[in-house]
Automatic annotation (TrEMBL):
<comment type="pathway">
    <text>tRNA modification; tRNA-queuosine biosynthesis.</text>
</comment>
<feature type="binding site">
    <location>
        <position position="212"/>
    </location>
    <ligand>
        <name>[4Fe-4S] cluster 2</name>
    </ligand>
</feature>
<comment type="function">
    <text>Catalyzes the conversion of epoxyqueuosine (oQ) to queuosine (Q), which is a hypermodified base found in the wobble positions of tRNA(Asp), tRNA(Asn), tRNA(His) and tRNA(Tyr).</text>
</comment>
<keyword id="KW-0846">Cobalamin</keyword>
<feature type="binding site">
    <location>
        <position position="186"/>
    </location>
    <ligand>
        <name>[4Fe-4S] cluster 1</name>
    </ligand>
</feature>
<dbReference type="GO" id="GO:0005737">
    <property type="term" value="C:cytoplasm"/>
</dbReference>
<feature type="binding site">
    <location>
        <begin position="239"/>
        <end position="240"/>
    </location>
    <ligand>
        <name>cob(II)alamin</name>
    </ligand>
</feature>
<feature type="binding site">
    <location>
        <position position="192"/>
    </location>
    <ligand>
        <name>[4Fe-4S] cluster 1</name>
    </ligand>
</feature>
<keyword id="KW-0411">Iron-sulfur</keyword>
<keyword id="KW-0408">Iron</keyword>
<feature type="binding site">
    <location>
        <position position="132"/>
    </location>
    <ligand>
        <name>cob(II)alamin</name>
    </ligand>
</feature>
<comment type="subunit">
    <text>Monomer.</text>
</comment>
<dbReference type="GO" id="GO:0052693">
    <property type="term" value="F:epoxyqueuosine reductase activity"/>
</dbReference>
<dbReference type="InterPro" id="IPR013542">
    <property type="entry name" value="QueG_DUF1730"/>
</dbReference>
<dbReference type="InterPro" id="IPR004453">
    <property type="entry name" value="QueG"/>
</dbReference>
<keyword id="KW-0963">Cytoplasm</keyword>
<dbReference type="GO" id="GO:0008616">
    <property type="term" value="P:tRNA queuosine(34) biosynthetic process"/>
</dbReference>
Amino acid sequence: MIDNRSKYTAMIKTEAKRLGFLSCGISKAQFLEEEAPRLENWLNKNMNGEMSYMENHFDKRLDPTKLVEGSKSVVSLLLNYYPSEFQNDDTYKISKYAYGTDYHFIIKDKLKSLLHFIQEEIGEVDGRAFVDSAPVLDKAWAAKSGLGWVGKHTLLLTQKSGSFHFIAELIIDLELEYDSITTDHCGSCTKCIDACPTQAITEPYVVDGSKCISYFTIELKENIPTEFKGQFNDWMFGCDICQDVCPWNRFSKAHSEPLFNPHPELLEMSKQDWEEITEETFQKVFKKSALKRTKFTGLTRNIDFLKS
């Protein structure tokens, strides 16, 4: 029997590049032994805050073969979202990943195209596409696939382009050639830890999710605890501080995905514009944006917390 693993692997990686992905790495679909105790410990310390969904499907989170029956390979993909233009300096800030159209739609379409290509060119291959909406440990798989290393801020870092990228996966029942893990290049640097205003990075490689500005401004549905007043540095949706200070992000290059470009009005908005925003403007400017996740009421709650 002819072993086509090398050929199929090369085909998939070439097509991923054609579809606009930054990089593609592949690892064997199997139980994540190293992650299991780490995840259990993190959950036991309630570092997931009110993100109770993190406690669900513990087994599936660690073993892709329980998530996708018969799976053999995890194809990990990165998509760059670093913008070429930024918000005004003196305004309420939103995380760069939310500047344009919600990434879930864009990446899902690309993943479907990649899966369709595999089925057309290789034959009967079953699998599922994932964009952080299912119990998949994206960063662990991306690191296992040699796409980068998990930095001290717990985000995936690459030497070539830093960390401003989305991670997605195809979990398929096709055996392929597997990539090897890359090395950690954080060294003795602690810039992300030192810069976090809420001390959410409790130790290198551990983030207490319940103290993270992104958690407070997106995930938390109740009022933001008053003890964190004055610590948000004007971030009203997400936070990029630990990425902005990371030396590896000086290698970030602007993305080439038109759908990630911001609505023209977004970059011009001043603090006053945000404070006076109406639901109608919110729906218009952020029609297909990730900002819809926090809803208009969540956004105004965040703004009120920042200005009071």
